[in-house]
Amino acid sequence: MDFPNNPVSRWLIKKVLKKADAITATSNLLKRVCIDLLPASETKVQVIPFGVTVPRAPSEMPPSDTIKICFVKGHYKKYGPDILLKAMVLAKNKITNISLSIAGEGDMTPKLKRMVSELNLDDHVNFTGFVDNREIYNFIQQVTFL
């Protein structure tokens, strides 16, 4: 979806889709984009969701006085981590017992860390760095259950 949307790029993508024996997409939206580009690809596209494996019986969350939020994504403009930090300012002005754990890395990481300081969120936001996809559920559980 981030591929440049110009005639040459569209031609190249269609050519690749046409030659593919099978196509995987991580969401129904991406499947729809493939089919819109090349309707003949409909029978070749399968959705394999990108996600977090959750145990069949997740642990019950212990009671807490703090509202705990997690952001687990690359630190890139398109995911809006800067917008989340601005929202945290509004939230902490109404709810003093709120915390945000930010996992991941990206080109915005230095800017986000500066924003936390500039927005006076040091006591409410912590950065944990990259979390492997297989460990995301454990990360969320640790952050929200502590």
Layout of strands and helices, then pairs:
Blueprint: H1 7-19, E1 23-25, H2 28-37, E2 45-47, E3 67-72, H3 81-94, E4 98-103, H4 109-118, E5 125-129, H5 136-145
Parallel strand pairs: 1-2, 3-4, 4-5
* Mean pLDDT over the full residue set: 88
- What overall form do the CA principal axes indicate? elongated
Strand order of the largest sheet: 3-4-5
Element-level helix/strand string = HEHEEHEHEH
Percentage of residues assigned to helices: 25-40%
The top-level CATH class of the largest domain is Alpha Beta
Describe this structure in words.
It is elongated, with a radius of gyration of 20 Å. The chain has 2 domains: 7-47, no CATH class; 67-145, Glycogen Phosphorylase B (Rossmann fold), CATH 3.40.50.2000. It has helices spanning 7-19, 28-37, 81-94, 109-118, 136-145, and strands at residues 23-25, 45-47, 67-72, 98-103, 125-129. It is α/β, with parallel strands linked by helices and 146 residues long. 12% of the residues are buried. The strands form 2 sheets. It has a 3-stranded parallel sheet with strand order 3-4-5, sandwiched between helices. It has a two-stranded parallel sheet with strand order 1-2.
